[in-house]
Amino acid sequence: MAVLTVHGIKVPLQSEDVSPIIWQALANGSYEAKEARWVFKAVKRNDRVLELGTGIGVITSLIGKIPGVQVWAFEANPSTAALAKRVIDANNLRNVTLQQGILAAGAPRTFRFYVRKDLWMSSMDEKHEDVISIASTNIDEFIFQHKINVLVMDIEGAERDLLRGAQLPGIQRVFLELHDHLYGLSGIRDITQALATKGYAYDPRGSRGACVLFAKDDGPREYEPEAADAA
Fold first, then answer.
1. Which one of 58, 108, 149, 190 is least enclosed by Cβ atoms within 10 Å?
2. Which CA distances in Å does 183 have to 95, 133, 161, 200?
3. Residue 212 has what DSSP assignment?
4. If phi over 0 gives left and psi between -120 and 50 gives alpha, with beta otherwise, what is residue 57?
């Protein structure tokens, strides 16, 4: 099997494992390129990271290579989780724990999860090709039990309800991809207000386009030319 290298990560997948669109993005290096650059603003040495929406594990593996980091990664789609395991194993990341499942706010319940081969389109939105049922685990209990301090997520629109309902105990930074095509500007407002109520602020030094960082106040800051250029 040929092994691609994407953002420095070994990706032992074949074209038939994913859709043509995703394969092309992997082959030309554009797959999750924005996330690959900006996630390092959110995750620091020795962080304890919860990642929701692992996909095929490229960003998971990038995070896992940061010194001292521990990662707990969740992917709802069973077939995609299997691909992620292959990628994580190929990169010898023993500090990454991958689980197939869903974390949600509130009491455990069953979600209908809609699947497409374009894995970044799989979600809990009904306009998709196949459906599976998945029982959730309470996210706040998981965060507390594992002493998580950073939350990274790309969950295709489900972030709106999750961030409104979860308390996020001990979380210092939240890095996520927004999906305004699914919930419009009203959804962006809901997310921003929910995080602000919990004490988070939009951090321009870790944000670019739809990939945004929200963080608790970390004290005074000095001027950074790179941050100004990225704005």
1. 108
2. 35, 23, 11, 21
3. E
4. left
Residues 16-33: pLDDT tens digits? 999 899 999 999 999 999
71 vs 177: CA distance, rounded Å: 18
Structure tokens at 9: 């990560």
Q: Is the pLDDT of residue 226 over 60?
A: yes
DSSP annotation of 117 reads: S
Count of beta carbons in the 10 Å neighbourhood of residue 44: 16
First vs last Cα of the chain: how many Å apart?
41
pLDDT tens-digit readout, 58-116:
999 999 999 999 999 999 999 999 999 999 999 999 999 999 999 999 999 998 887 76
| Cβ atoms of 71 and 63 closer than 8 Å | yes
What per-residue confidence (pLDDT) applies to 35?
95
* Two structure tokens written together for 17: 């494992």
Which amino acid makes up residue 198?
K
